[in-house]
Amino acid sequence: MTPKMARIKKIAQETPSIRTFYLDLETDAKPGQFAMAWLPRVDEKPFTLTGTGNETAITVQEKGKFTKKMFELKEGNSIGIRGPFGKGFDFGGAKNACIVAGGCGAAPLLMLAEELKKRDVNLKIVLGARTGNECLFKERLKNTGEIYITTDDGSLGEKGFTTSVLERLLEKEKFDCVFGCGPEPMLVRVFELCEKFGAECQLNLERFMKCATGICGQCAIDEWLVCKDGPVFKSTQIRKMRDFGKFAMLKSAKKVSLQEYAQWRQK
Amino acid sequence: MLETEFCKVKLGNPTVLASGILGTSAELLIRAAENGAGAVTIKSIGPREREGHNNPTIFEWEHGLINAVGLSSEGYKEMEDVWEALKKCPVPVIASIYGANVQEFIEVAENVAKQKPAIVEANISCPNSEKHGQVFGCNIDASAEVISAVKKAVGEIPLIAKLTPQAPNIAEIAKACEAAGADAICAINTVAGMVINIEARKPVLHFKKGGLSGPAVKPVAVKCIWEIYEAVKIPILGVGGVSSGRDAIELMQAGASAIGIGSGVHFKGIDVFKKVCSEMEEWMNENGFANVKELVGIAHE
What we know:
The complex is a heterodimer of chains A (267) and B (301). Chain A has a 7-stranded mixed beta sheet with strand order 10-9-8-7-11-12-15, sandwiched between helices. In chain A, strands 1-2-5-4-3-6 form a 6-stranded antiparallel β-barrel. In chain A, strands 13-14 form a two-stranded antiparallel sheet. Chain A contains 7 helices and 17 strands. Chain A is α/β, with parallel strands linked by helices and 267 residues long. In chain A, 54% of the residues are buried. Chain A is globular and about 50 Å long. Chain B has one domain: TIM Barrel (Alpha-Beta Barrel), CATH 3.20.20.70. An 8-stranded parallel beta barrel of chain B has the order 3-4-7-8-9-10-15-16, surrounded by 7 helices. Chain B has a 4-stranded antiparallel beta sheet with strand order 5-6-14-11, with no helix packed on it. Chain B has a two-stranded antiparallel sheet with strand order 1-2. In chain B, helix 1 runs parallel beside helix 2 and helix 6 (170-179) packs across helix 7 (218-231).
């Protein structure tokens, strides 16, 4: 589809570095799906959808050139939107679930948590951030289940990693599914823990994208396309991935280490 | 029924993953092969690493796709791992190459030839960069010069010249490429176009103009293939708007021996190759054709 220009109805400051842009646009976005946001003459980038129906929204962390431009936008301005795209979370049968969110990784998990709450799923949430005031969607996530907070600096909750909390939870409890999103090194650890304790997981992965519809091959992780086969992948797929946690493609399609890729993405 | 040959390379069926689609990694090329492609094409390889344009680079409009990816490439020097992984590819691999001038074409062709792809395709017709492609593809002498040079560089490996429908005389260009040593012609590359978002009051592609593909360009492809078929003896890889068995048969009746599928992956999914093949078989059964080779050029009879 061609990008549709959508007016920004409301901008919510979620944390010092993260804002949600509510759009004058109706979608049927499912938890985990994403949209391409276009700033004419600048660029177009994928963002997870953090609301659906007439609450359709994207949540953006100010990081590089594009998101700095996004943060100059005011209510009433417009951006181009293509989407929703991708396969979201598969949460049909879950009764007892755990969510692990690192940094802006809480964005795709919010809609999922609220959907699980509606279905009376017993939910544990592990929310991690650099520092206390960067804990994204803390209040809304609190309303969906039992929340555990970790921060790098110990300014809120437990000082340390989300995965240490996850490990303790997995030792005590059997989850139908562990849903995760965050920095890929964290997700690698989430996957390892789930494998160790025999829990299924679904992880929302990220790669640089172009087409968003499964043809250009830019967002490949081995033979999977993050835009079309993902962005949410299940344990059965992740087990076979060789690039997961190791490699990603630059814009030229050159495959580099995840560290080099992350440095490039910060620009 | 669908087994055929293209430039003496045996194909299980005539469908080919077209260049620029999914061809960024060996794993994706192999996945296309597992989904029925008779051969697969690596995304055009250039002389050095090139990012291409900013997004939007590809999107769907009412009657097809438009793209201006801008020849992004990791460069031939960085592809050892890709070639190694492609040893497991179950179907023939076509290596598409580009350069900004004859010297660059030779450099890429010589190095790519060392990896022994089944076929090399010289992209002398990409509309999406200032320097590359169409300067060659729209001009008889320039096309002949680059094809002759690339043919020398690739030696025994069959060479396809990929042509642009923007040339007013595509059949003459094809003839010149044949005389210069091309073993086959690929037609067509995308058709130049532009889409403006009227609310944004801006072209949607970051590069502003791009190449159209998909259903809208199929009649352009059919006409070009028709003219080339009448002008040359070498086989034609027909590309342009194929996403069904009927589309593929139409291009073959115009004169194509094999069929490239690109946008069809967007419209029908990665298993478009299997779908096209089974639809072709069904049509052939209903219409009394035992071998797909019988379809080539029959609309001319």
